[in-house]
Amino acid sequence: MGPGGGRRRSVRIPAIAAATLALAFAASAPAAPPPPPAPPAEAAKAPTADESLYQSLADLAGKLYECVGPYMQEVGGPKVAAKIHAAGRYPALVVSASSVLGTGHLSVLSARDNPAGSAGQTQSLIVALGVFGSGDGGSIRQNILRAKAVAIVASEIAGVSEGRCAVPPELSTAMARVPPEL
Questions:
Q1: Are 25 and 78 in contact (CB under 8 A)?
Q2: Is pLDDT of 128 > 80?
Q3: 22-26, 104-108, 173-177 — which is least confidently predicted?
Q4: CB 42, CB 7: distance < 8 Å
Q5: CB 106: neighbour CB atoms within 10 A?
Q6: Long-range contacts made by residues 163-166, C-beta under 8 angstroms, separation at least 24?
Q7: Which three-class secondary structure string do you get for 73-134?
């Protein structure tokens, strides 16, 4: 039950998407298909601003994952990470990862020590985001950060998907509304 007695939707879409992305990058094994959408929430009260932000992030990231998941399976995690790095996305990925994982996270610290990065470091950041995003439970803030982690990874993959997937502007707007983790 959410605040005010209303039921909240499950965090399963971003959690499963993040876990699938992390495992595919880590092991380059075929990822499981995305889960079916959660049933509509039965709200007794209007959701809070944070709940609305979380729901928007989770829904939009889940929809984008439906596009990038098959692409990533086809190409493979290490090759996608290499494409992200070759496209010059590594510095932006470091900034995005630190906004979710925090500036003290070991993957972020390591990435900041090597500003040019490598395909391997790109893959490590993506795996760290995926592992974080696959967590379950916690505060609404944690759920928002987890959904943003999934959105970051899915957005980066969409950017190198050869035009197959596009990041909706609403997702970029929702991600920008999440205050960074320190």
A1: yes
A2: yes
A3: 22-26
A4: yes
A5: 10
A6: 164/67, 164/71, 165/64, 165/67, 165/68, 165/71
A7: HHHCHHHHHHHHHHCCCHHHHHHHHHHHHCCCCHHHHHHHHCCCCCHHHHHHHHHHHHHHHC
Between 18 and 163, the higher pLDDT residue: 163
CA distance 158 to 89: 12
The dihedral built from the CA positions of residue 17, 20, 26 and 31, taken in this order, carries a sign that is: negative
Residue with tokens 């509304």: 177
pLDDT at 20: 55
Beta carbons within 10 angstroms of residue 104's beta carbon? 10
- The overall average pLDDT reported for the chain is 83
Name which of 94, 112, 178, 133 is nearest 14 in CA terms.
133
Q: How far apart are CA 145 and CA 8, in angstroms?
A: 16
pLDDT of residue 135: 87
Counting every residue written for the chain, the total comes to 182
Residues 123-149 have a mean pLDDT of: 92
